[in-house]
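ARCHIVE CARD
Drawer: 12
Card no.: 0347
Subject: one protein chain, sequence and derived structure
Cross-reference: see card 0346
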Amino acid sequence: MAAGVLVTGASGFIGTWVLRELLQREARPVALDAQRPGDRWRRVLGDRLGDVVWTDASLTDRDALQAVVEKHGVSHIIHLAALLTPACQQDPFLGCQVNVLGSAAVFDAARRSGRVQAISYASSYAVYGAEASADAADSEHPPMFYGAFKQAVDLIAEQYWRHCGLRSVAVRPHVVYGPERDLGLSAGPSLACRAAALGESYTIGYTGPAGYDYVEDVAHAFVRGVFECPAGATIVDLPSERATPEDFVRMLECLVPESAGGIAVDGPPIPANVPSRPRNISQLFPDWRPTPLVEGVRKTVAYYQEKGR
């Protein structure tokens, strides 16, 4: 029987691509999100959209989550739902409720059900501080509430393994880019790809280097992580190819020559989050091969050239 996989945050950017990979694997995805799915599902999932089961159970309701697990025969969970950095900074208490309490509810519903084999969940490079300098320990201190909440969930996952035997893989991407990324400051390069493909102008609103992970790689990490989860509470960093917004502009001008002069860069430096002790996903999956940045940009441009907005 096909595996039942609960995906929290399934209406979001990464969640949609996770659903796509699960459907390609002939799994039975059960989607949970506070937001109803929009056109993104239609564009990415196509004819398979009807194969996704939808639930609007509350992320922080442990009993409701357990009922979903049992009703739909869920054996694996991919937990993506969270409030992002701006929302957590604006209302730290709400951010803690959703990101920490909601994650604890997911783990405890899995524990109580007795049927969930593994959980993969979204951690983040935001757990890391500034690039290591004189005091390398500073790189392990999250600079924002969002990173602190993610670090708390990593510690909670470890306790569920230690005391309950619940296996998990935490996946830490840096900046995720690709088709259908449209929210947040770091969506700038993805929106620039869309603008170049559609013959529009656009300004990426930040400067400075960051690591970038292509969305299909990120989705694959969550799906492979949950189905091939080893014993323990494992944490993996994605490779995150380093680039600046200006690098994206140069790639776009090569791929779409007519975009030259139409894509600009202007804004403050993006915060640097650099691990002092990287845990590359290749340590878990030695055959891991990330999509090169130039290829991810090419695929993103091609997506919008085919589908439009």
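Annotation on reverse: The chain has a mean pLDDT of 93. Residues 92-113 form the longest helix (22 residues).
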